[in-house]
């Protein structure tokens, strides 16, 4: 059992190191030695968990969606809003998440690595929530959850990218707030719309409440 | 004069070759020799126009906005919609545009190259049009042209990227149509809203009319 725990910790340490290196150097320029040095693990340990650079990149890509974990909300639209703000906030400080986003976005990520996977995972997770929102009567009858979700995932990707290029992501919260201000009136019923919180600092506040709950 | 014309043509040939090579290989893996071979020009001609790989990349980045050229419309919101669809349509076939977009999006583009420049150019061009739309009474009083434009540029960037990752951009027209269906009700007055055309094949139709007009 202790051995299994150690293996889980080692795997995580490798993933975090790999995320940081992929974030800084991109797929092509990253070498296994760079990851080894950063993770402070042996070559044997790394190859035990990840037989190749491709498999390491894929694992980093697959780690993206858990970073959207937020407390469940009675209003499912609020829960979706919270996920976007929390991911935005975590992008500021978490290099595994940043590396994962870079691999998904950079065209250089080779075709042997499925960089469409996080897009599909986000779409799957968010569509389930938006379908729940529909069942609960939060959505206008014209809303099409699958289309709205595809738009959200694509827009979020580009908005964080533009925010990174222009302000090193300092204005990401504000940009997400603008996104929601434009989209929500087209999908939410008025009674829900008025109660939603999509202000720029929403991510920081949700993360704060998570930390308080954990302490 | 003939000499000047030749110089303009050579410069364009180099830019188009560079765009194609940047699109296929990204910034880091692209070499000047690859561009020379593709453009079929001499080293001297290339260095006359572009003294370095950085300056070549910057010129490719700066070529992006002219690809949004569309016929002026009485309704300025329609003109903005047309620009997005025409750029989407041209991304399918134009490798200079594709290379320019890749340089703007890829994190590997070095800090000596200003890859925020096309974002700023788009924002500038579109804000002027949206301000005109406001003056003409097309916008709801709550619309904020600068914020809407930043959202459009960021969302377009991510939507084309997701479309490339999942369908090699085959569904880009549909995705743009979904974007507009979500945003327009939050910014356009109803009388304008009903007359706008943002169907998925809008880009193909606008380009067709441009070709007919030119023939």
TrEMBL record, chains A, B:
Domain annotation HTH tetR-type: ranges: 8-68
Entries under SUPFAM superfamilies matching the protein: Homeodomain-like, Tetracyclin repressor-like, C-terminal domain
Keyword Transcription set for record: yes
DNA-binding interval(s): 31-50
Pfam families registered for this protein in UniProt: TetR_N (PF00440)
PROSITE patterns: HTH_TETR_1, HTH_TETR_2
Keyword terms of this UniProt record: DNA-binding, Transcription, Transcription regulation
Domain of life from the UniProt record: Bacteria
Protein name in UniProt: ScbR family autoregulator-binding transcription factor
């Amino acid at each position: 059992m202790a051995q299994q725990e150690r293996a889980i910790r080692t795997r995580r340490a490798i993933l975090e190191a790999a995320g940081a290196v992929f974030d800084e150097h991109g797929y092509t320029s990253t070498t296994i030695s760079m990851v080894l040095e950063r993770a402070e693990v042996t070559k044997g340990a790394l190859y035990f968990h990840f037989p190749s650079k491709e498999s390491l990149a894929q694992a980093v890509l697959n780690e993206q969606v858990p970073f959207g974990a937020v407390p469940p909300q009675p209003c499912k639209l609020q829960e979706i809003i919270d996920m976007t703000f929390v991911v935005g906030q975590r992008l500021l400080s978490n290099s595994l998440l940043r590396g994962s986003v870079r691999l998904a976005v950079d065209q250089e990520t080779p075709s042997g690595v499925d960089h469409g996977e996080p897009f599909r995972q986000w779409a799957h997770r968010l569509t389930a929530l938006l379908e729940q929102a529909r069942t609960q009567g939060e959505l206008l009858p014209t809303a099409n959850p699958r289309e709205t979700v595809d738009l959200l995932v694509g827009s979020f990707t580009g908005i964080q990218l533009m925010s990174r290029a222009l302000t090193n992501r300092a204005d990401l919260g504000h940009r997400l707030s603008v996104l929601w201000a434009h989209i929500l009136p087209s999908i939410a019923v008025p009674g829900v719309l008025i109660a939603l919180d999509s202000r720029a600092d929403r991510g920081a506040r949700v993360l704060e409440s998570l930390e308080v709950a954990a302490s």
